[in-house]
Amino acid sequence: MSIVDWPEGERPREKLLQRGAAALSDAELLAIFLRTGVRGKSAVDLARELLARFDNLTRLFAATEDEFCAVKGVGQAKYVQLQAVLEMSRRALREEIKSGDALTSPRAVRDYLRLLLGGRQQEVFAALFLDAQHRVIAAEELFQGTLTQTSVYPREVVKRALHHNAAAIIFAHNHPSGVAEPSQSDRLLTDALKQALALVDVRVLDHFVVAGAGGFSFSEQGLL
After folding, report:
1. CA dist 215 → 59, 172, 219 (Å)
2. DSSP strand E in the chain: where?
3. Which of 98, 152, 175, 194 has its CA 20 to 30 A from that of 49?
4. Which residues, in sequence order, are bridge partners of residue 141?
5. What whole-number distance in Å separates Cα of residue 163 and Cα of residue 15?
6. What is the C-alpha to C-alpha distance for residues 40 and 148, in angstroms, rounded to an integer?
7. pTM score
């Protein structure tokens, strides 16, 4: 059955207008983005197929062009549109966290870091450099590694902090495994970075581990 034949209150677009975007399922939101389905499949059916193939939205967003276009019914144009939407979301969140105290808007910081790192196939270590009022000066991906580990060099981190004249830093890295719990090496690295940066009067405010749609905050767990 085509979506136009559904009861009006159940069609994704009408449902969004009546109840708000939060009332829609992942498949319904994705269907609005796709707009149309293919022969024998509605846009919602196609959206469900995409989510089943990639497991969740995070992995779908991180899919390569070849992986995305391998699904019948979507192509390069949809891939380009999706990447544009994701980049606009990142930029909007970056503007939000740059406009005020990062510690008073932790949701925006975490949403930004999830969009930046979630779903990546290799470990990436990033940092938000903050001024004395905890406003974001810059966001950088500092190191990239393999599926299971990344080599992080405290000396290079200190150099970047001094380059930005940062007063504080929030670190983040992803776990492609989907397990947010930090490893012992993650804990040791955080301690080493904290000690190295203290020598130049830069505070480490948090280290956030991104894993799929979840995460782990060193600060919230009392590990800093």
Report:
1. 15, 10, 12
2. 124-130, 136-144, 168-174, 203-211, 214-217
3. 175
4. 126
5. 49
6. 41
7. 0.68
